[in-house]
Amino acid sequence: MRTIRIFVSGTVQGVFFRAFVEEEADKLDLKGFVRNLDDDRVEVVIEGREKDVEKMIEKCRKGCPYSQVKDVEIEKMRHQGFKEFKILKF
């Protein structure tokens, strides 16, 4: 299992990016959350199998149809034991 935090910057708020991430996380059986940040970035915290986490990183780099991803930062985290994936509000 691998747990990471991803910060995505660019045009990623107001373009259904969080819903996109939630849908992809469900497909990959990843757990965690996604939320908008006050600085216009989106934070994604995911845990799951190594190969599925890598796939999600690539999905975040590409973005959804209306997004324009400029940068993706990745931080390693300790295992959190999430039971589901959800969209959080601020």
Number of helices: 2
Instruction: State which percent range the strand residues make up.
Output: 35-45%
Number of domains: 1
Give me the CATH fold name.
Answer: Alpha-Beta Plaits
One letter per element, helices H and strands E, the order comes to: EHEEHEE
Biggest β-sheet strands, sense, barrel: 5 strands, mixed
Shape: globular
For the record, the CATH architecture stands as 2-Layer Sandwich
Topology, element by element:
Blueprint: E1 2-11, H1 17-28, E2 31-36, E3 42-48, H2 50-62, E4 68-76, E5 85-87
Helix pairs in contact: 1-2
Describe the structure in your own words.
By secondary structure, the chain is of the alpha+beta class. The chain has a single domain, classed as Alpha-Beta Plaits (2-Layer Sandwich), CATH 3.30.70. 28% of the residues lie in helices and 39% in strands. It has 2 helices and 5 strands. A hairpin with a 5-residue loop joins β2 and β3. The N and C termini lie far apart (27 Å).
Using brief descriptors, characterize the structure shown.
90 residues, alpha+beta, Alpha-Beta Plaits, five-stranded mixed sheet, 2 helices, 5 strands, 28% helix, globular
Summary of the model, kept short:
The chain is α+β, with helices and mostly antiparallel strands.
